[in-house]
Design brief:
The protein is an alpha+beta fold. It has 2 domains: 45 residues, no CATH class; 60 residues, no CATH class. It has 3 helices and 6 strands. The protein has a 4-stranded antiparallel sheet with strand order 2-1-3-4, covered by helices on one side. Strands 5-6 form a two-stranded antiparallel ribbon. A hairpin with a 2-residue loop joins strand 3 and strand 4. The relative contact order is 0.12.
């Protein structure tokens, strides 16, 4: 028997390695999987699906991953009037207003779904 764990949580016991790995792949879960059995141990990490990842770019073209859309919008609104110059030559306010436009479009797209 092979035991499949996601972190420390047991997901089940399976008669073969391939069945355990198939179940892990189809689970839709993200995290560290461990498959343990007689004289066998394997670990692997499953990342979040790329389709759900949101990104914006700043004025300099740097890609920024957005993990919490509402927090990102709030931060950009608070910094929209910043007069401080960045290494890119733009002010913090210019950069945050540029990103805020993209974030608001993402928010609108979410509402329309």
């Amino acid at each position: 028997m092979y035991k499949l764990f996601l972190g420390f949580r047991k997901m089940g016991e399976y008669v073969s390695i391939s069945i355990g790995k198939k179940i892990a792949g189809e689970s839709g879960q993200t995290g560290v999987f461990n498959l343990i059995g007689d004289d066998y141990s394997d670990s692997w990490y499953v990342f979040k699906k790329e389709a759900s990842m949101m990104t914006v770019t700043d004025k300099a073209g740097k890609i920024i991953e957005v993990t919490d859309l509402d927090d990102a919008i709030r931060e950009c609104e608070m910094c929209a009037d910043s007069p401080f110059k960045l290494e890119s030559g733009y002010t913090g306010g210019e950069n945050h207003r540029f990103m805020l436009e993209q974030l608001l479009k993402l928010k609108q797209e979410q509402r329309n779904k």
